[in-house]
Specification:
single chain, alpha/beta, Oxidized Rhodanese, domain 1, five-stranded parallel beta sheet, 27% helix
């Protein structure tokens, strides 16, 4: 099974562990138009690996692409928009032999607020963690 941590807890863990990897499993369009986590000031690495494409088609090479970036003992954190896709990605990684897998609860943009806007109630951006546009 995988664990879950808040964006702030994940950023702290990435700061502490050089054998850590943040996998952003959102789509290319999200990386370009919404931005990506900026973890350059941490010891961790960032990998952009789509869980599914913009049409919803699952990336059948997801696990293989993760294996190219991490070993079984790498501390892996997976982030998506709100935490749902990343939870599915985490489960897939655990089922394929990764042992230290953590879902980023709240995701990059977080949940919708009462006005159907994101990044205003929770998520990486809401917590003012570093990010940038591609």
């Amino acid at each position: 099974m995988f664990t879950e941590l808040s964006p702030k807890e994940v950023y702290h863990a990435l700061t502490e562990n050089k054998n850590s990897l943040l996998i952003d499993c959102r789509t290319r369009a999200e990386w370009v138009y919404v931005g990506i986590p900026d973890i350059r000031e941490t010891k961790g690495q960032l990998a952009l690996i789509e869980w599914s494409d913009i049409t919803g088609q699952q990336n059948l090479n997801f696990v293989n692409q993760c294996q190219e970036q991490a070993s079984a003992d790498t501390e892996i954190f997976v982030i998506c928009r709100s935490g749902a896709r990343s939870a599915a990605a985490c489960m897939s990684l655990v089922q394929n032999g990764f042992e230290k897998v953590c879902n980023v609860r709240e995701g990059f943009e977080g949940d919708l607020d009462s006005q159907n806007h994101r990044s205003l109630t929770n998520g990486w951006k809401y917590h003012q963690l570093p990010w940038n546009q591609r």
